Amino acid sequence: MTASPPVVDIQNISKRYGRMAALDRVSFDLKRGECVALLGPSGCGKTTTLRILAGFERPDAGIVAIDGRDMSNARPYERNIGLVFQDYALFPHMTVAENVEYGMKRRGVPKAEREQRRREVLRLVRLDGLDERRPSQLSGGQQQRVAMARALAPNPSVMLLDEPLSNLDARLRHDLRHELREILSAAGTTTLIVTHDQEEAIAMADRIVLMNQGRIQQIGPPRALYERPENAFVASFLGRCNWFDGAVESALPDGSALFRTTEGLGLRVRLPEPRVGAPAPSGVAIRPERLHVVDAGTAVDGAFNLLPATLTRLHYLGADLRFDLTLPEGRRLEAVVKADGRPLPAPGDAVTVAVAPADCVPVAGELRQ
Q: How far is residue 194's CA from residue 87's CA, in Å, rounded to a whole number?
């Protein structure tokens, strides 16, 4: 069965501002109905990528195709794109109905068709009955959904969401990102979300395109980036990790490998699938929640890596507990466990840290603290 062509296909786009390379041969695509998050720190190139896709900027090199047509030099209004801005950009003097119909009216859609489509999208974003209100009479979450409805109304080929939840408080962001994902899924819309918020990207996206310094670091489902990062930047940016510098020393009979840290500690690790041209692992990343902490002397399955440690500090985080630990050679670790009511060690107690080889992820690069 032949796969359908992508709705958006970005091939090797580059962009410079003077001496600064904002984008360096960036390539990725969006499949029909897919939600992709463009994620990265400030200055990584994600906003430049969005502006090029929207037609506000032109690339110095490369191709931007939408629905199989090269749009690299097309004007914004020629691209059939729906755009939701960070500040929503609603017209304050217009009602909700007028805001939602604005794009359709400019495209010459007949009045009866506009009104029917308006009712459809307002029902989709759960704003029925608010047609005659003005933006000032709406909450922040309602304004955001009006902006979504306005962008969805003309049936765009692709929706671009630029930091769509950044103006909302933390609780509303948490609630609304799931609601927006449901709206986009129900509409069957192909969507690109630009965000610096890793939780937002993980919660909303089918795939994440993680960028840094104008280049793509890794593309894949959120779980793949979190559990199998391809380099130190991905491991450190997407969540927290414990890091050990070193090198793979030898293969082991069970299919794992022995990684020797710079302090001389031996860790059994599971090597990633080999990739052509991939650099050799120079570090091991371990997520805090993958560490098991037990009292020193407790019997532990020999399949685990066992590390003697001292509990330095315990942090109560409600549903979770965070242990700050110190290994004999002075290296510090962080472990996160569920607060399940069990007896806890006290600061200064000797403990054993256990971690499975599969949770010791060898990656390339150097972690910058």
A: 14
Question: Pairing mode, if any, of strands 215-220 and 350-355?
Answer: unpaired
Question: What residue has token string 């806890």?
Answer: 344
Torsion, Cα of 174, 47, 159, 192 (10° steps): -70
Share of the chain above pLDDT 90, in %: 59
* pLDDT tops 90 at residue 277: no
pLDDT of 369 above 70 = no
Cα 284 from Cα 241, distance rounded (Å): 9
Residue 94 identity (one-letter amino acid)? M
CA distance 198 to 39: 7
* Cβ–Cβ under 8 Å, residues 86 and 173: no
Tens of pLDDT, residue by residue over 5-31, are 899 999 999 999 998 999 999 999 999
Tokens of 318: 């409600």
Residue-wise pLDDT for 207-244, tens only, equals: 999 999 999 999 999 999 999 999 999 999 998 999 99
- 183 close to 175: Cβ distance less than 8 angstroms: no
Count CB atoms within 10 A of the CB of residue 199: 12
Closest to 146 in 3D by CA, of 97, 74, 218: 97
CA 14 from centroid of its chain's CA atoms: 22
The rounded mean pLDDT for the chain is 89
CA–CA dist 193, 214 (Å, integer): 17
Contact 328, 305 (CB under 8 A): no
Contact criterion met (CB below 8 Å) for 77 and 248: no
- Containing H/E element for 96? helix 96-106
235 is written with which tokens?
Answer: 């491991």
pTM to 2 decimal places: 0.89
Measured at the alpha carbon of residue 199, what is the angle toward residues 196 and 205, in degrees to the nearest 5? 85
